[in-house]
Design goal:
Elements lengths: L1 H22 L4 H16 L6 H16 L3 H21 L4 H21 L3 H19 L4 H16 L3 H19 L4 H16 L3 H18 L2 H17 L3 H12 L7 H16 L3 H15 L7 H17 L3 H15 L6 H17 L3 H19 L4 H16 L3 H18 L5 H16 L3 H16 L6 H18 L33
Length: about 525
């Protein structure tokens, strides 16, 4: 018994030292060695305990810091199971369990985010909020911060509708606890502006931005104020107020340093306003100035520069300079691939590159980008996210272009299922996926199936009323051509190519935020 007692004391002492080292910010390898020693002892007891859960949480944390995400996830999942069992059995005081359980949920969210599994991470963040509310109460200032963190996590996956209530709750708590003029309230308002922008409620976004600017000015937070002013200009652009945006940006650029990232962002926004005024030459010059600044910032700020390259690419797309757009997106991917937390962005940008390559006729080059994007984004958002439907549609278009109709039909069928589930079967892009599926079956000679799906498309367009009259007439024409082909008669004007769809098609959503959403 004495030997067992000594061994247990050694395990607990190792845990305490590991926790102390972790708290003091020591290298995670040191923390890991003590936590591993503690786990060996506590595991040998063959019973669940709080020290065991704390040891597993510490091992998860240390492995996360060492970027060993799979190991971290394994320890944290086990810690979570131990704590849930202890709570169910009532063998420990719930007040002792909750703080550890909260820490485990937060760590799980961090690890899953780092692994690109952001949808799953949101579940852990919601659970951590519930636990924190049970400990501190629903109106504590820390609950405000946690609500804001959760809103930001939803914004990161562009789910603005879900982000809104959490941001509003954060704002409500911070106004009550810290006062209307607090810096935290200003930052809540900036985030609310991003959310309203994502929901295309630009006037509301601008109102929140202006309120935030007043507070930031009073606090002397010049860097945040500069970003807010750039964000306001982008909102004015979204509202079609191009001259007002340009005037705002002319004032902001005077406040920036010559080779600063902020100056580059000003010129990108200026280019955006000028593009909308069809002043392509002026826009191009602004983008060249921005590019000259950003090239020097790649090593120091890879994420910010990648986001800027993405936004610049969109302007080149509008000017129909697709090769330049693709080049910038490839530079963005090269930067993002080095950042474990940004694998969802790698997938999104790869999908955009694939789409643009299709538009430029480089079909075989497009396919690897699209296939890679589909796999990466399934890991990040789950297999039924609307954006993945667009990728499979574009893969189908590529295979059909290469005269591989059976492979195309498989891709279009997956696209149709995803879009039906995420956008609804009567959404215009869902109907386009059905029509593409019909084209693939027709190309392979399966006219019965082709007619069946084209009839579904006709029925769906009929539900749109007069707004879709042209699409309905075309769908009916194609249906009649298919019936003629099926009967053995010749037909002219039958479409054999599928339409590639961009991620930010008229669904109004995208897998990747624009740069103004980061301001």
């Amino acid at each position: 018994m004495e030997a067992c007692f000594d061994e247990r004391e050694l395990g607990l002492a190792s845990l305490k030292i590991g926790l102390k080292l972790d708290h003091e910010g020591e290298h995670p390898d040191k923390v890991l060695s003590f936590a591993t020693r503690a786990l060996k002892v506590l595991d040998s007891e063959n019973k669940l305990s709080l020290p065991l859960s704390m040891t597993l949480q510490l091992l998860g944390s240390a492995n996360y810091e060492l970027k060993r995400f799979n190991d971290s996830l394994g320890y944290l999942n086990r810690a979570n199971k131990v704590l849930v069992r202890l709570e169910e059995e009532g063998s420990c005081d719930i007040e002792d369990i909750r703080p550890i359980l909260h820490a485990v949920q937060m760590e799980l969210a961090n690890v899953k985010t780092a692994m690109g599994r952001r949808e799953e991470a949101l579940g852990n963040l919601r659970k951590s909020l519930e636990i924190k509310e049970s400990i501190l109460g629903k109106d504590h200032v820390e609950i405000g911060k946690t609500n804001k963190d959760l809103a930001e996590a939803y914004v990161a996956i562009l789910n603005f509708k879900e982000a809104l209530p959490y941001c509003l709750k954060a704002l409500e708590i911070h106004k009550a606890q810290l006062g209307l003029s607090s810096a935290q309230v200003a930052h809540d308002r900036l985030l609310l502006g991003v959310i309203y922008t994502g929901m295309e409620e630009h006037e509301k976004a601008l109102d929140q931005n202006r309120l935030a600017q007043k507070t930031l000015k009073n606090w002397g937070l010049s860097s945040d104020l500069l970003r807010a002013e750039i964000g306001a200009a982008n909102m004015e652009i979204a509202l079609g107020r191009y001259d007002a945006a340009i005037n705002t940006l002319k004032g902001v650029v005077q406040q920036t340093e010559k080779d600063s990232e902020s100056r580059a962002l000003v010129f990108i926004s200026m280019a955006k306003a000028l593009v909308n005024q069809d002043k392509f030459g002026d826009s191009r010059r602004c983008l060249e100035v921005a590019s000259g600044i950003l090239d020097k910032k790649e090593a120091a700020k890879p994420l910010e520069v990648a986001e800027a390259y993405m936004d610049m690419s969109m302007q080149y797309e509008i000017m129909n300079e697709l090769e330049k757009a693709i080049s910038l997106l490839k530079k963005a991917v090269a930067l993002l691939e080095k950042l474990p937390h940004e694998q969802h962005s790698v997938g999104s940008v790869s999908a955009r590159i694939g789409w643009l390559l299709l538009l430029t006729g480089k079909v075989e080059e497009a396919i690897p980008y699209l296939e890679s994007a589909a796999e990466t984004l399934k890991e990040s958002f789950g297999p039924h996210h609307f954006g993945i439907g667009y990728i499979y549609n574009n893969l189908g278009a590529a295979y059909l272009e290469l005269d591989r109709p059976q492979s195309a039909a498989q891709m279009f069928a997956v696209a149709k299922d995803i879009m039906d589930a995420s956008l609804g079967s009567h959404h215009s892009d869902s109907i386009e996926a059905i029509q593409n599926l019909s084209k693939a079956y027709a190309a392979s000679g399966s006219y019965g199936l082709a007619i069946e799906f084209q009839q579904q498309a006709v029925n769906a367009w009929e539900g749109h009323g007069s707004s879709a009259e042209d699409m309905l007439n075309e769908a009916r024409r194609v249906l009649e051509q298919l019936k003629l082909k099926a009967s053995g008669a010749s037909s002219d004007g039958f479409p054999t190519k599928a339409l590639p769809l961009p991620h930010n098609s008229d669904s109004g959503r995208s897998l990747q935020p624009n740069i103004e959403q980061s301001c």
